[in-house]
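@channel anyone free to eyeball this complex?
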Amino acid sequence: MRKNSFSGILLFVFITLFSLSACGPKDSKIQAAVETAIRNNPAVTGIAASVHDGVVTLSGECKDEASKSEVESEVAKVKGVKKVVNNCTVTPPPMQSAPVTIAQDDALLKNVKDAIKSYPGVNATVNDGVVTLTGDIKRVNLQKLMMSLQSLKPKKIDNQLTIK
Amino acid sequence: MALQDKYQELLNTAKTVGIANLQVREQENVLYIDGEAPSGTAKDTLWNIYGKIDPDFRSGDVVMNINVSTMIPGAKAQVTTDKSNLNIRKGPGTDQPIVGKAAHHEIVTLVSKTNDQWWLIRTDAGEEGYAYAQYLSPQG
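replying in thread with the prediction:
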């Protein structure tokens, strides 16, 4: 038993040494050349390469599909590279903001009336999405009123209130 | 972009307090800010900064619509009226008849959301009806 496992370990050590001596230096040489190729391309940054038996695996983020394929073909040209596995991801463009929705005047007016009901002394008119406030309000209530009015999707709030 | 500079502190804070789905758009000299706050406190923080940059909300150059994401059906909410009771109505609208009242600072259950303004709520006494969302603050 003990002899068997010992020779097993010995075999493993030999195989490892053999494979290291066969591929190690070559792969590391390719790796260095690939890294230089990536560094010389100003369009990409933060791309990492790993080499195993002449197969290069690229990972990281590219700014678009064009620079992703460009870096791939650059790397493929490096001497000793058999294959390029391109695992780079393309950074998605920044999210497009949804357009601003403005409530229709009749719905807006109904909601504005609901909102100001608890604040006697406040009057409001609605014209083309613009809510105009007149009358008077206690200072402590102003922010609360604004919070509810600004959630109604108005175009704008024209605050002409007298603050008491 | 001038408005985004004016309200820079507000926009930065929106990011630090963790407003989800934050959208900031500038259109015809009005800055529209939409998003979901993780808590009522986060929403209040933003409103306090807004009120500091634009005292008494006089400029009319911001429309900020921040919902609180913990306002969900089944959650508890506290009645945060000034001091009066909160009317519970038959339907979503102040023209609807009053069917009950929730006391100042009472805890009620959120049943379903009709829109940003109205919630169907239930009191511990079993009264059910529509209440104005502005006076409901999520618990926890």
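from a first look: The interface with chain A takes residues 23-25, 27-28, 30, 32, 47, 51, 56-58, 60-65, 67, 82, 93-94, 116-117, 132, 134 of chain B (CB under 8 Å).
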